[in-house]
Amino acid sequence: MSEKPDALALRTKAMLRELAMVQDIPLHISIEIGRTRLRVRELMKLNIGSVMGLKKAAGEPFEICINGQPVGRGEVIPVEQSSGVRIIEVFKPGGLGA
């Protein structure tokens, strides 16, 4: 039998212990589904039911940001009576892409 799973579990537990003092720090997580530019006159015409087009194709993954920094990409999924986010990519520290 391989001991790799046990070694990985021990390293994971050790890493979690090392991070214990930062685990309760609050983070601001934002999900950006797209961007657009409007003139003030266009913004003033918006009402309930207005639709704003975004410069992103429907169904395309969106960025997940923590404290304003992109950390991954996700897609919207239904969760009971609400919506959720499925993480489909996690960026490597220091750059985009996994």
Kindly describe this structure.
By secondary structure, this protein is of the alpha+beta class. It has a single domain, classed as Surface presentation of antigens (SPOA). It has helices spanning 4-18, 40-44, and strands spanning 29-32, 62-66, 69-79, 82-90. Strand 3 (69-79) and strand 4 form a beta hairpin. It is elongated.
Could you give the order of strands across the largest sheet?
1-2-3-4
Mean of residue pLDDT?
Answer: 84
- Report the top-level CATH class: Mainly Beta
What would CATH call the architecture? Roll
- Count of individual helical segments: 2
Radius of gyration: 20 Å
Core attributes:
98 residues, alpha+beta, Surface presentation of antigens (SPOA), 4-stranded antiparallel sheet, 2 helices, elongated
Quick rundown:
The protein has 98 residues and is of the alpha+beta class. It has helices spanning 4-18, 40-44, and strands spanning 29-32, 62-66, 69-79, 82-90.
Write the layout of secondary structure elements.
Elements: H1 4-18, E1 29-32, H2 40-44, E2 62-66, E3 69-79, E4 82-90
Antiparallel strand pairs: 1-2, 2-3, 3-4
